[in-house]
Amino acid sequence: MDPYLGPVAGASLAAFAAGLLLGVVRLRRKFRAHSARKGMKAASTDAATPTPAVDAPDTASVDADTAPPVFGALALVAIASGLAVVVAARAAGDAPPPVAAAPGPSLAVLAARLSTIALVGAFACVLALGASFLVALLERGIARVLARFVPATRAVPEETPLDVGALLASGRTRGEAEPFGVGLATLVLVGAPVFATGCLVVAAGGGPAPAAAVAVALLLVPVAYAAAAERTPHPAAARLRRDAAVRQLAAAPVWGAALAAFPSPVALALFPLAAAFALPGTHERPGVFALPWGGDRAEANPAVRALSRVAHGAWIAVVAALPVVALAGPARGPGETAVLVGRALVALVALVAARAIVRRFVAPGPAPVAAEAA
Amino acid sequence: MIGLVQPSVDPAVEYVRALPWAPSLLLAGGASLAFAAFALTRRHPGEAGLAFALATFALGLVCAELGQGALGFATAAIGACAGAGTALVAGLARRAPGAPRVAPGNEQRLLALALVAVLATALAVAALAVDWPRRDAASISAVVTTGALAAAGLVGVLTRRHLAILVLSAVLAVLALAALTATLPFRGAVTFAFFVLGFAALVGASGLALAAAALERGHGPWIEPLEGDPT
Fold first, then answer.
1. Is the per-residue pLDDT at A305 higher than 80?
2. Residue A250 and residue A74: Cα distance in Å, rounded?
3. Please, what is the average pLDDT of chain A?
4. Strand partners, A296
5. What is the average pLDDT score of chain B?
6. Residues A93-112: what's their mean pLDDT?
């Protein structure tokens, strides 16, 4: 468990920070609603019908009644679970059987290591956030380069913008009121890529193989979306989130097959394919296999929109770095670390460029939501 | 005369204190138990599924501490799949407006707790036959952790709030059993643990399919209507 304590600490820290952001938004909204009610009472004009805090309407173009195929999703659940057991049993079969393990570390030893664990956790947190911004920057830059050399003949779906200003503004704006479960799902959504980033850091330092840890963390993404879909009172948002959850679950068996074949060329080809569907984010329109270009684009709450965008970018970085770290093994010394970081950056640029090309030439254009709503 | 009276430490407490314990494993097990208790008492399957996934994640850490990382990853993966499936199945509730929710009464909960307490006592008496001081700290702590988790699963089965909780409780009990199997001191225990894990995956998938079929036909206990939902 020791190698995973740092990543777990990082995920907890990220979830705490995201919770703080969502809490500030909620408190601010409640305070404004309270002030509005107080102002209305002071004016004593009408018999006081307080201004509702929830005001954002659902997306009109989303057909909320048609749910995604639940039994199909359950088949995916069965396949993914079964595949996880088979792959893990195969991996355990190769390893020596350490049933009667050595005595666990004492509380004193744990306490002494807490500082290291906290350091790894904080580093994973900062690295995931930085990687997310770097991905956003690369997406913007590569899109501009492509636009300069290849003129667009049709509408191209844009990535959801992410910069420091947008993230800070998300804490100041008035958000959409949603239940506790949606907030909890958002915390898990933010914590999962930080855990995966921490596992990559630990693996680069000589820890255990990160592929399985990253795969399990990626499985938390559909759980978060399915939970948020179940808890939201808005049918349209529920539909989009359910679609996203089914799409991410559909990627799980491919991801499992890639894990089973790792590090063969087939696995290296399957990884980005699975990751393209497994990334967090919802489309503007319902559709199980609509690829997300950013976070939750149709989300009414700006804080959730920004946090899902951060998670989206961080996962892209993790997916790009995973094959590099897993194939290279532990880095010894600053020289090898620099080479590893350089390779990971090259892989990241290649992945972002591939996504930009797919977005420009293959993906369908954006939905004219505003026109339809009008 | 009064000064000669010494407070005596109960031999059972002394015996338990003298056993080797692994605090890190107990910590992860405690986190798993806390998440499981949170999950199995939720009214809403979405929150239950999310907390259940986190509980199995912590149980996976327990397995990793036992030296069975692969078993831990499979445990966490099954938990995540079951959690996502639960929330998706609960989405079917939106199709049947006004369906009633059947929540257990307190007397049913008390009965379930009493039943689990009787079972736990019987198992504890049987467990005295094991020479625990000769076992290592990790396996003793794992036995306690997984026993508590299995008990929580059993309580969840007996006091289920809705069909989703019933499925999650059963999966939790079987996952705990799988981790417990891995601590057994005989050859092939880990292989057997993977079979138990396969059974957990089967229980989860078939349980969710049955729940979905029942919900689609309008049977069984239901979830509470969402806030602001006119139905």
1. yes
2. 10
3. 76
4. A282
5. 78
6. 53
Q: Which among B24, B84, B90 is the nearest to A1, CB-wise?
A: B24
Q: Is A77 in Cβ contact with B208 (below 8 Å)?
A: yes
Taking Cα atoms as reference points, which of A225, A303, A289 lies closest to residue B53? Answer: A225
The C-alpha atoms of residue A96 and residue A85 are separated, in whole angstroms, by 18
Report pLDDT digits (tens) over A4-50. Answer: 777 888 888 888 888 887 777 777 666 766 677 777 776 655 544 44
Residue B134 makes CB contacts below 8 A (sequence gap 6+) with none
Residue B36 identity (one-letter amino acid)? A
Within 10 Å of residue A343's Cβ, how many Cβ atoms? 17
Give A374's pLDDT tier (boundaries 50, 70, 90). Answer: very low
Check CB contact under 8 Å for B25 and A104. Answer: yes
Tell me the chain B residues in contact with residue A181 when contact means C-beta distances shorter than 8 Å. 44, 46-47, 50
- Would you call A227 and B141 a contact, using CB atoms and an 8 Å cutoff? no
The reported pTM is 0.81
ipTM for the predicted complex comes to 0.79
List the structure tokens of B94. 């939106």
CA distance A188 to B35: 13
Give the Cβ contact number of residue A139 at 10 Å. 24
CB A311 within 8 A of CB A217: no
Contact state of A230 with B84 under an 8 Å Cβ cutoff: no
Which residues of chain A make contact with B54, given a CB cutoff of 8 A? 188
**How far apart are alpha carbons A189 and A242 in whole angstroms?**
15
Interface test with A, best of B65, B88, B130 (most A CBs within 10 A): B88
pLDDT tier, B230 (very low <50, low <70, confident <90, very high otherwise): very low
Pairwise CA distance, residues B199 & B178, whole Å: 9
pLDDT at position A57, please? 41
For residue A221, what pLDDT is reported? 92
* C-alpha torsion sign, points B11, B13, B15, B18: negative
**Dmax over Cα atoms in chain B, in whole Å?**
77
Tokens of B56: 């199995």
* pLDDT tens-digit series, residues A124-174: 899 999 999 999 889 888 888 887 877 666 666 666 666 666 666 666 666
Q: Choose from B21, B81, B195 for mutation: most chain A CBs within 10 A.
A: B81
Q: CA-to-CA distance for A157 and A367, rounded, in angstroms? A: 9
Quickly list DSSP for B79-132: HHHHHHHHHHHHGGGGGSTT----PPPHHHHHHHHHHHHHHHHHHHHHHTTS-G
pLDDT of residue B154: 81
Binary contact (B23, A67; C-beta < 8 A):
no
pLDDT at position A368 over 50: no
What is the CA angle B157-B160-B164, rounded to 5?
95
